[in-house]
Every structure is written in structure tokens, then in C-alpha cells.
Design brief:
The radius of gyration is 36 Å and the shape is globular. The chain has helices spanning 3-10, 30-33, 96-112, 130-134, 195-205, 241-244, and strands at 15-18, 41-43, 51-54, 60-64, 70-76, 86-91, 138-139, 146-150, 157-162, 171-176, 185-189, 211-213, 227-230. Strand 3 and strand 4 (60-64) form a beta hairpin. By secondary structure, it is of the alpha+beta class. The chain has a 10-stranded antiparallel beta sheet, covered by helices on one side. Strands 12-1-13 form a 3-stranded antiparallel beta sheet, with no helix packed on it.
Length: 279
């Protein structure tokens, strides 16, 4: 099987989308659950979440609601029966590859055994936005008590941090796409979310690696903000007779050599043998 055919059968989609923050949801959460695929899974028939994955000690809970506005709800508690210390939600336009950056960081924290996923957030907002600052995201005009950075490449992405405004919900939000129910991806963190987990999620917004999607599922309203390339490049067009003709060289002339013309005369008879001399 050709390599291009093998690739087409292993990629879930027919196009690659860049930037990944504008790829939308593929309709399933597999990439977001991949870092915690070894954790306990609970499939529910009732309630807002169809699937819940928890850490082995049940302190970290990752819920997937396949047909709700907030597709993802992630919560962390000090113990299995305590109320969440912090939560994060991702809406229906959020690519699961962005959620995977958060779940991978959570899985690493749990494996390390240091309970970093329960750490207090840094008092410095730059710690949460460090990957974005390093990638050149710029300050946007913001109201007092808030911070907002936007991507410099025109991809319509940003981060909003409410530091002290009491009339707005406290916390941090990463977003991508123009405002609208079907166009904007949002990941929202409550105020007590550890800064390193927000930074890990933010790093996914700067990842240049494209993600695979089916072209027919892409929202056309975002076409001007992203690049789409086929998973399998189209074959080059078949050459036309006009293309082929210049490639046909002039045939070399057949070499003509002189052919010896043999005589048709009867060859003369052999001379008789000379008698031996007498002594």
C-alpha cells in the first residue's frame, strides 16, 4: 500500500488545520483523554456528563458532556469527597488537543506525588501567561484590575485575567476565535487554579503543530483566520500531449555502413600439389 494511502487510513480527518486553537471540536474527546487513558473511566447514562475519568484516588475528575455548551468540566479537590478547590471548563468549540495540555499536566502532577495540582496560584499574573509572553503576545487595552493579551499573528486568540474586579467572575480565560456561540473557543479557570496548569494549557495555544479535521465539519465563519491543507496532497495533473512532446527527442539516424559486395565469379580451382623432387 502506498505511504499516502496508509497515512489517510490512520488520520481522523481529511485536512490539517492551523492554528490548532481554531480547529473546533471533532465531536469526540479522545485527544483530551489520551494523557489519562489509564485512569478509571465511568460511563454514565444520566446526568450532564457522558463520561467521567478520575485519578485513582478520585481527587481529580475530568467530565465530558457530548451535547452541552460546556463540553469539559475538570475539578480538583483535596480528597475524594471534598468540594472542588478549583475548576476549569471548556466550551463546545474548544479543540480537545488544547484540553490535552491540561490533562497531561494534571497526570504528571499526580504521578509526581507532590500535589502540585493543589498549589496556590502565583501572585504574579505573568506566571500563568509565560508561554504567551515568550511567543510575543501583546498587551491589549484592559479595564482596571484586569489583564488581557492577544496573539500577534491575527489568529484572534487571547487571554483574559481578572485580578481584582469584583463585578466580574474572578479567574482566567483563554480564548480563540471571534465572539459568537459557534465561533469562539473558551477555556475558563476559577481563581484558585495553580498558575503552572494555566501556563501548560496556554502553551497549547502557541503550538504550531496542525491538527486533523474533516473539512465538512469546519465552521466557514473561521475560514479567513486559519489555514487548511489536505492530509493527502492531490496528485499532479496527468501530462497533456503538449507536455509530452518536448520530452520526445529526435531519434538518432540509423548508422549506414558500406556492405562489402562479394564477387559472384566462380573461384579458381586449387593448384595441383607440386611433385617431390627426385634425388
Amino acid at each position: 500500500m502506498p505511504s499516502s494511502a496508509r497515512q489517510a487510513t490512520t488520520v481522523d480527518g481529511d485536512v490539517y488545520v492551523t492554528p490548532r486553537s481554531l480547529a473546533g471540536s471533532p465531536g469526540h474527546g479522545e485527544p483530551g483523554f489520551a494523557p489519562v487513558k489509564h485512569w478509571p473511566h465511568f460511563h454514565l447514562d444520566e446526568g450532564p456528563h457522558q463520561l467521567i475519568v478520575t485519578s485513582p484516588d478520585h481527587r481529580i475528575r475530568i467530565g465530558w458532556a457530548g451535547d452541552d455548551y460546556d463540553l469539559w468540566t475538570i475539578s480538583v479537590a483535596p480528597d475524594a469527597i471534598s468540594a472542588p478547590q478549583w475548576t476549569a471548563t471548556a466550551n463546545q468549540n474548544t479543540p480537545p488537543e488544547l484540553v490535552a495540555a491540561l490533562t497531561a499536566a494534571l497526570a504528571q502532577d499526580w504521578t509526581d506525588g507532590q500535589d502540585r495540582f493543589l498549589a496556590s496560584p502565583s501572585p504574579y499574573w505573568r506566571d500563568s501567561a509565560a508561554p504567551l509572553i515568550a511567543s510575543g503576545w501583546k498587551h491589549e487595552a484592559a479595564e482596571m484590575g484586569t489583564v488581557e493579551l492577544v496573539a500577534p499573528d491575527g489568529s484572534a486568540a487571547g487571554i483574559y485575567i481578572n485580578r481584582s474586579r469584583r463585578d466580574l467572575e474572578p479567574g482566567t480565560q483563554l480564548w480563540a476565535g471571534p465572539p459568537g456561540w459557534g465561533t469562539r473557543a473558551e477555556i475558563t479557570f476559577s481563581s484558585r487554579t495553580p498558575s503552572h496548569l494555566i501556563a501548560a494549557t496556554a502553551s497549547a495555544f502557541t503550538d504550531p503543530t496542525p491538527v486533523a479535521r474533516w473539512r465538512e465539519n469546519l465552521d466557514p465563519q473561521l475560514a479567513a483566520l486559519r489555514q487548511v491543507t489536505p492530509v493527502v496532497p492531490p496528485r499532479p495533473p496527468a501530462p497533456t500531449p503538449r507536455d509530452v512532446r518536448p520530452r520526445i527527442g529526435v531519434r538518432p539516424p540509423v548508422a549506414v555502413t558500406s556492405v562489402p559486395r562479394w564477387s559472384t565469379a566462380t573461384p579458381s580451382a586449387a593448384l595441383p600439389a607440386r611433385p617431390a623432387a627426385r634425388r
